[in-house]
Amino acid sequence: MRAKDAQRLGTIRLLMAAMKQKEVDERMVLEDSHIVAIVDKLIKQRKDSIEAFTKANRQDLVDQEASELLVLEQYLPPRLSLDEVKAEVATLIERLGARSAADMGKVMAAAKTQLAGKTDMTMVSQVVKAMLGS
């Protein structure tokens, strides 16, 4: 507020409102993992909006969503690199004995519990598809 950065302030207020809404809706005290999940959800919404606004040729809205995205990304813990994700997925595939694309659901379920909050699950899905040959 003191820096007069209205865009950043608005984004932080949006994040705080989403956190408060989750607390009220589910009558719980949020833990770090819940907050990371909320930030991930808001980031995914921004990316989807950027894609839609780009298709609609609305650069003003793309710029607004992109600036919100940059602010939100600052509140995430460091993410795993692509190589680290590949190593984790390879370990999961070996541990679960997955052989084909039919096993993708089983691998993704295990990956979600192990990697949620550490990386973008879309990237994990792409890596699993590539490794299982689908």
TrEMBL record:
InterPro entries hit by this protein: Asn/Gln_tRNA_amidoTrase-B-like (IPR003789), GatB_Yqey_C_2 (IPR023168), YqeY/Aim41 (IPR019004), YqeY/Aim41_N (IPR042184)
GO molecular function: carbon-nitrogen ligase activity, with glutamine as amido-N-donor
Name of the protein described by the UniProt record: GatB/YqeY domain-containing protein
